[in-house]
Amino acid sequence: MPEVLEVESYRRLADQIVGATVTKAWADPYAAKKLTSTAQWAKVVRGLTITGTGRRGKLMLLETSGVPLGMRFGMTGVLLIDAAAGIEGLFYGPHTFRSDWIRAGMAFDDGRQLLLHDPRRLARVEIDPSLDELGPDALSLTRPEFNGIVSINRGEGPAIKARLLDQSVVAGVGNLLGDEMLFRAGIDPRTPTGRLTGEQQAALYTAFKTTMKTLLRRGGSHLGDHMPGRAPGGLCPRDGGAMRSATIGGRTTYWCSLHQH
DNA sequence: AGAAAGCCTCGGCCGC
DNA sequence: TGCGGCCGAGGCTTTC
Hints:
CATH class of the largest domain: Alpha Beta
Shape: elongated
Oligomer: single chain
Number of strands: 11
CATH superfamily of the largest domain: MutM-like, N-terminal
Low-confidence stretches: 221-226
Helix content: 10-25%
Strand order of the largest sheet: 1-7-8-5-6
CATH architecture of the largest domain: Alpha-Beta Barrel
Distance between the termini: 27 Å
Number of domains: 2
Strand content: 15-25%
């Protein structure tokens, strides 16, 4: 769930612990799944001083006095510092916090704690994460970078929705953001990427940027105050047209049968 | 009961 | 027939 906008709010929260030194770190076997062991996290992280924060798409980065650290939030992950949540809650999943849903964390020399709260166990911690498989960041996407998304070398390419969800093409667009920008641009999510007209490309770029800007201001896509037609039998909030749904790019996709083509 | 906003793996298919 | 790349399906995991 957390898409790029939620992860950005977590990163801003994590700015608060810049300068602090880790006295203890722990992770359960699920959170440490990308590591060789849970002990590796505890051993490597202890003693590091946090020197800065970063983010590439949905991957949050902690710069340190030693190796960089990474955190991924899966579908229900939330970053906490002491008891303060990075965001109010999540549209999906429980809006409550439980201590037994804390899957990883670190304690600092000033008494504070950074915690990874995740009811489902899909969030992960990483040591020296690789950025090689990630495309340009969605929040700061430039027009030349956008052109790389819609340019297809051969054939018609995958459906534009699937293309937007491909993290190696552009990092940070999740299922809701993908639907939202295609809705705003009036583009059928099934359209092969290579078939988009110049006009559609321009509309999608504009929609991409405005979606990022307006939803970041509102606090992220988790608030669920966009796309009210996102339910079986729903109606398009713009023109009242029937909303359609199908699985595209492996995710449930909603679009308006009237204005998205 | 079924679906969920992420990500990873696996297996089938296509083209050289 | 062999192999690599691509893509979709399915799994993970727990909750509501």
